[in-house]
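#dry-run=false #mode=assembly
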Amino acid sequence: MPLDQSLVGTTYPPTSPYEVGREKIREFADAIGDPSPAFREPEAARKLGYPDVIAPPTFPIVLTLDASMVVLEQLGVQLREVLHREQRFEYARPVTAGDQLTCVVAVESIKSLAGNDILTTRTDVLAGEERVVAVWSTLVVRGEA
Amino acid sequence: MLETGAVLPERAFRITRADLVRYAGASGDFNPIHWSDRVAAEAGLPGVIGHGMLTMALAARAVTEWTGDPGALVAYTVKFTKPVEVPDDEQGAELAVSGVVKKVEGGVAQVDLTVSAAGERVLTAARAQVRAG
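#status=ok
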């Protein structure tokens, strides 16, 4: 069954704040095998001009995947039916330990392609009023065979 | 270093099932197609596939370990063209990442990336924009 197009243009209320912790950043950096000291040692991050440990570039997905589950739930889609098709990040600055981040998710488009649905969400990751990262995720929702 | 035509030398990254479990835990992406052969087969896949976001993270590593500042990305985009099959053995899958600086404009270098596994491109239109100094 095709996805409900009426959700296009919907913007969801901000998520509750997520506090970025140094140990969560370290855990994520370990999981992608990135040894950079800027992800682990405040002093190393300061040498590069950052106020505290920074997160790897793809770290915001930790927040945005969770924040966008509301869209999948509303569309009646399970994660296992989904393949990732495209991903984009636009950074004002790196996510930094101590940030209190909220996400505002919007449904940017829902298209049909060869029996599958293609869903694009845009999530603004905010620290108060400041937009830290804008994140676009495009997912393929497999049609029923 | 970030001048037009500069080449990011090829880097190899190995991805095993254990890496997928670890990435699932750290990222919160517990989609079972990344850990269950049964669910992957039901989804029409040949077997468990790696998280696209893990591939994207490793390609970013190649860029930032080359440029030196992991916080210097301005934008980063990829298309996931082909899944990375990760067999349940010690070798897993191997990613090859290379790149070239396509242009430098307004202090931002555009690095176009080539990312492949088993000889086939798994990402296309993979592009990192990096503050050039």
